[in-house]
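quick one: nicotinamide-adenine-dinucleotide bound model?
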Amino acid sequence: MQAVHFGAGNIGRGFIGKLLYDAGYQTCFIDVNQDMIDRLNEEKKYRVIYAEEEGRVFEVGNVSGIHSLTEPEKVVDAIVNADIITTAVGTNILPVIAKIIARGLDKRYQQHDRPVNIIACENAIGGTTLLKQALLEETAAENHDRLLSLTGFPNAAVDRIVPNQQQENPLDVMVEPFFEWVTEEPKIIAEKPAIDGMNYVTNLEAYIERKLFTVNTGHAVTAYLGYMESKQTIKEALEDRQIYEKVMAVLQETGKLICRKYHFHENDHQEYIAKIISRFTNPFIVDEVTRVARTPIKKLGYNERFISPARQLLEQDIFPKALVYGIFAVLHYNYENDPEAVSLQAKLQADGIKKTLSEVSGLTIDSPIVTAVEKLFQETR
Ligand SMILES: NC(=O)c1ccc[n+]([C@@H]2O[C@H](COP(=O)([O-])OP(=O)(O)OC[C@H]3O[C@@H](n4cnc5c(N)ncnc54)[C@H](O)[C@@H]3O)[C@@H](O)[C@H]2O)c1
Ligand SMILES: O=P(O)(O)OC[C@@H](O)[C@@H](O)[C@H](O)[C@H](O)CO
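yep, here:
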């Protein structure tokens, strides 16, 4: 069985690639990192190392690589023959790879009518749906029906902390032992891919919101508050009592929303939070605050980890005080090596807090969230 996976990065190699290998797939990674592609083709295998006391090591074999931009014909042919297509490139890159995937699917369905599932393994609500929309834009209108009748577009939630790597062999990747991959069953086409460790659910929204608003909201608040306090890593940030308490306050707010909306049991959710904090403070992982804080403009999006739970709480007449503080912290993120942080700071300088926040978040300028964030700035001046 052939898998085509876009993004040979941390999650691509450390999570999806491993599960695909264990399930018997030969995985062709598509990336723009030439060194990574060359190494994959030379070595045809790499190692996944667990960040734990025993330090278990797993070999992932049957891998190869193709450059997304310089070898487009090879990418197209890999898509023609794929049994599954997955991505882990970052949500912002999905419209970029849509072009080549659309070409590949077009050629595929000219040659045969074997259905294929595409699963975007990104941190986003409706990641595969975003890719599907971008694919339709890249496909001639007369081929839309054929594309939609032969392609499955299930959304997914993926959870495994894979920090930036410092391995001797750049192909090797250290990951936390915990993982969760949940895929939307009703949108699967034809036979369900049998991948050990990937679970199918009918109500993905509950799982993705629980994951995004707990793991990722908690992670992001830790990172932005940590950055403000000059902490280097997520673990170091959480060792600061004041940061820890602010993070817990945020998780109690998002927890209230998740438990009410999806009827998760309160005690189970508190255990879920405790487990996540223990994952963040895993002593075998060095996870820099700047990795977790990356792309702050994206993270302030309307359907993202801060604004979505904050506005949903507000709709229930609950004022999201702790989340507002988190948003205030995001606006302080001025890391010069993150292009989005640089643009965000430039925009804040030019347009001020209310206009900037309103534009990046999609909230109205008179939203109580925007007003409360501005008030925090005034109070700390
Ligand atoms: N690292 C984690 O802990 C984690 C966990 C769950 C989900 N995710 C999600 O997985 C996705 C990837 O994150 P990551 O941490 O692996 O990032 P990463 O930067 O390590 O990997 C992304 C890869 O995509 C490649 N890429 C960029 N543009 C490309 C293009 N046009 N064509 C093909 N490849 C391209 C990059 O070269 C890189 O190798 C993100 O959506 C992230 O939110 C990450
Ligand atoms: O990947 P991002 O930028 O959406 O979020 C940063 C981290 O919170 C994220 O990568 C987590 O490590 C991951 O989502 C854990 O499953």
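The chain has two domains: 2-202, 205-380.
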